[in-house]
Amino acid sequence: MRKSPVRRRAAPSPDLPPDALPRRIERLSDAIRERRVIELLYGGAWRIVHPHAVGRMGTGRVGLLTWQTAGLARGPGQPGEGWRMFDVARIADARILRSSFTPRPRREDAPWTPGMPSPAADVPTRAAALAE
């Protein structure tokens, strides 16, 4: 009887040291306020994202809510573009690019995500951004 090959998953990214987390949050917050595109290294793959909010999630971890435009998809047959929530402590590297973006639409009276009730930083609504 032949054994099926063992599939190995990439090791999870080590968490960011606790003393580095506040600096990372501040840097991401600046990119969000300036509506700058970010290139992230997460889970061993580079992704291009439009950051919309950063803050503490219900799990206690700090999350980065993004609209991903390029990079690794969730799995075969899954679109590479769409909403993604990244654990900030597991982001291996981040480069803030010169490009800017227009925020995705949202309801005026609603947060970007119920999983992040009080973001440390978030982009303005699409209407407000277009009015600038």
Q: How would you characterize this protein structure?
A:
The chain is α+β, with helices and mostly antiparallel strands. It has one domain (18-131). The protein is built from two helices and six strands, in the order αββββββα. Strands 1, 2, 3, 4, 5 and 6 form a six-stranded antiparallel sheet that branches. Strand 2 and strand 3 form a beta hairpin. The longest helix has 13 residues, at 21-33. The chain is globular, with a radius of gyration of 16 Å. 21% of the residues are buried.
Walk me through the topology.
Layout: H1 21-33, E1 36-42, E2 45-56, E3 62-71, E4 82-87, E5 91-100, E6 121-122, H2 126-131
Antiparallel strand pairs: 1-2, 1-5, 2-3, 2-6, 3-4
Mean model confidence by pLDDT: 82
How far is it from the N-terminal to the C-terminal residue, by CA? 67 Å
Note the overall shape.
globular
- Portion in strands: 35-45%
Return residue spans where pLDDT drops below 50 for at least 5 consecutive residues: 1-13
Number of helices: 2
Describe what is shown at a glance.
With 132 residues, the protein is α+β, with helices and mostly antiparallel strands. Helices cover 14% and strands 36% of the residues. The chain has 2 helices and 6 strands; from the N terminus they run αββββββα.
Jot down its keywords.
132 residues, alpha+beta, 6-stranded antiparallel beta sheet, 6 strands, 36% strand, globular, disordered N terminus
